[in-house]
Design brief:
two-stranded antiparallel sheet; alpha/beta; Rossmann fold
């Protein structure tokens, strides 16, 4: 049984040895190491991706990329007035609530995750990080949030309808929910350069099968609109962005930059996404995983293969009357394939500067 830091510190042998455990934080004991990568402890929840420094950097890069594709916005849900209380579920590195806290300094921003990997410095005073599993009892009162955000939790949640009902109960009437997920297992091309026998589609199929054996689903993008509607939210809208896996010849500078960011994101993430699922679920040797990743990387860097995946962003409104009394005509959907984005000068400049520094 895993024991807390106070129990360890009370052990006389530890005290006698003079081990400097006073400098160790409780969260430092919540990690496991496999195949040269750090993961959160399995006792904390079901999450299959590393949470070490390389993954933290990748997640932060992914945040900037997704934000640019969403017109430089932190949220697409329309907020008629500045929110007073916001919740981010599965916050990861905490970068989204940090930016949200700066944009809405009068709001209280709460962010939960099963792993305490968020920064302790340079965090706005209105941002609060809480270690919590979204599928367990929530530590908040019902109808207490104006806006709830949840992004990229594919493969992590067993009961999506149950989580959405919790979101609904904890949103104020008229409050907004927003989800962002990928159509992760559809590696697409518009010119036939992606075929099912290639390594990249095979890789994603294996991740899908490994997640299914754990009772999880990774291909969540196409499902979230229906789930949000079934949960009883109204005014449900969906936006779909193309995520090119590399810069494409003929694209303008903005889309070349987006392609470069996705390219770096994928190349840095491929091994971490696959190692724990394939070794733990299918019994692969780490060398087998690395060989598959090598084959996928060859295809990703091949300029003659023009892969992309789709990002789905869905937002809806908690109705102002009980869900048992639906109002006909309130629920609508907008199914728009977005192939272009606004070139937001300030955000693009800041993001470009960020990566210029990273590349030095």
């Amino acid at each position: 049984m895993q024991r807390g830091l106070s129990h360890i510190m009370g052990n006389k042998k530890v005290q006698t040895l003079g081990v400097a455990l006073s400098k160790i934080e409780e969260s430092d004991l919540d990690f496991e190491y496999e195949n040269e990568r750090r993961y959160h402890s399995k006792s904390l929840g079901d999450y299959w991706i590393p949470n070490d420094e390389p993954e933290i950097q990748r997640l932060n890069m992914q945040f900037h990329c997704f934000r640019l594709q969403n017109d430089g916005k932190l949220h697409l849900a329309p907020l008629s007035e500045p929110p007073t209380r916001v919740l981010d579920i599965g916050t990861g590195t905490g970068i989204w609530p940090i930016y949200m806290g700066r944009e809405y300094p009068s709001a209280e921003i709460y962010a939960t995750d099963i792993a305490a990997i968020q920064p302790k410095k340079d965090v706005p005073p209105n941002v609060h990080f809480i270690v919590h599993d979204v599928e367990k009892e929530w530590p908040f009162g019902e109808e207490s949030f104006d806006y709830i955000h949840m992004a990229m939790l594919h493969g992590s949640i067993a009961d999506w309808p149950g989580v959405l009902q919790k979101i609904k109960r904890h949103l104020k009437p008229g409050g907004k929910v927003e989800l962002l997920e990928l159509a992760l297992c559809e590696i697409l091309s518009d010119d036939g350069t992606v075929t099912p026998d290639q390594a990249y589609p095979r890789y994603m199929k294996l991740l899908f099968e490994a997640a299914a054996k754990r009772g999880r689903e990774v291909h969540m993008g196409p499902r979230i609109r229906g789930l949000v509607m079934e949960a009883g939210f109204v005014d449900v809208y969906e936006r779909i962005n193309k995520c090119p896996q590399k810069p494409l010849v003929g694209d303008d500078d903005f889309h070349q930059f987006i392609g470069m960011m996705h390219h770096r994101n994928v190349l840095s993430g491929l091994e971490g996404w696959a190692m724990r699922p394939l070794t733990g679920t299918f019994g692969w040797a780490p060398e087998q995983v690395r060989e598959l990743v090598r084959q996928v990387k060859e295809e990703v860097v091949n300029p003659n293969i023009h892969q992309y995946i789709r990002m789905h962003v869905v937002h809806g409104t908690n109705p102002r009357r009980p869900a048992s009394q639906p109002v006909p005509g309130l629920t609508s959907t907008l199914h728009t394939l977005v192939t272009g984005s606004l070139a937001i000068g300030v955000v693009l400049g800041a993001t470009a500067a960020y990566f210029a520094l990273r590349l030095r």
